[in-house]
Amino acid sequence: MTKPTRPSSGGANKSQRGTAPVKTVDAGKPKSAKAPPRKVQSRKIVNKRQTPWGLIITTVAVVALAVGVIGYAVTKTNKKSSASVSADTIAGIQHYPNLTRNHVTTVVKYAQSPPVGGNHSPVWADCTGTVYPSQIANENAVHDLEHGAIWITYKPGLAADQLDVLTKLVAGNQYTLLTPYAGLKSNVSLQAWGYQLFVDSATDPRVNQFVSALKLNRTNTPEYGASCDNAAFKTTPSTPGKPTVS
Questions:
Q1: Which of 12, 117, 119, 191 shows the smallest number of beta carbons within 10 Å?
Q2: Nearest of 147, 122, 106 to residue 246 by alpha carbon
Q3: Is residue 113 within 8 Å of 140, Cβ to Cβ?
Q4: Nearest residue to 145 (alpha-carbon basis) of 223, 212, 92, 199
Q5: What are the helix (H) ranges across 127-226?
Q6: Residue 223 burial by CB count (10 A; 0-12/13-18/19+): exposed, middle or buried?
Q7: Do 117 and 200 belong together in one domain?
Q8: Is residue 108 domain-resident?
């Protein structure tokens, strides 16, 4: 009996071993078209930040409006403050207009005590925030009023705490002077050119109002801008009835 022939090990012909299978292409099926390349956005364009002009313009407008409102409020407040210390609004103030103001070398008899203006010595008392321990001649003090100073007087023997208040108000403050004054009808009186106020207490709020309203008041000072400095007088002040005249 004849034995059947066995195929060689590997199961494939040597001629087919190692040969890749051949792919067949369906002739009736068109090849798929390649997708167009994607455009990559320029990094320069992506990273560029746009300026927020709308926000900037709005912010500037808001700030400008706020500044305008604040400026208007401050101006209005300042005007209101100035009006609140007007001499005409101070209770009890007395006004003496049309005063003469000639320079004389004699003792002057004044209508008011202390005087608020009128003829006076050609020499003014030092009024650079000067605190005099004794009374000085009226004629020299009135010359200070002509220059826009405030002359504050007090009754001799005034309580120490009251005198301390007046001293702090005057000391070192230009165009002010402080003296005792014999025969004063109230504890304290204040004089400006043509104006006078009597008060019983140095802490009366009208004291500061008077000074604010009338010190160097342009409309009330006959010789606005004139000096208040007189070192010689400060060293050797006059006495009542004996004014310094030269």
A1: 12
A2: 122
A3: no
A4: 223
A5: 138-146, 160-170, 205-214
A6: middle
A7: yes
A8: yes
- pLDDT the model gives residue 67: 54
Q: How far apart are CA 164 and CA 27, in angstroms?
A: 121
Could you tell me the residue range of the domain that residue 155 belongs to? 94-235
Q: 91: how many CB neighbours lie within 10 A of its CB? A: 9
Query: Do 80 and 99 share a structural domain?
Result: no
**Mean pLDDT for the chain overall:** 83
- The one-letter amino acid code at 227 reads S
Confidence of residue 66 (pLDDT cuts 50, 70, 90): low
pLDDT of res. 15: 44
Q: What is the pTM of this model?
A: 0.68
pLDDT confidence of 126, banded at 50, 70, 90?
A: very high
Residue entry with tokens 């068109």: 30
| Cα distance between the two ends of the chain | 174
- pLDDT grade, residue 54 (50/70/90)? confident
**Span 77-90, average pLDDT:** 63
Kind of pairing between the strands at 150-154 and 128-131: unpaired
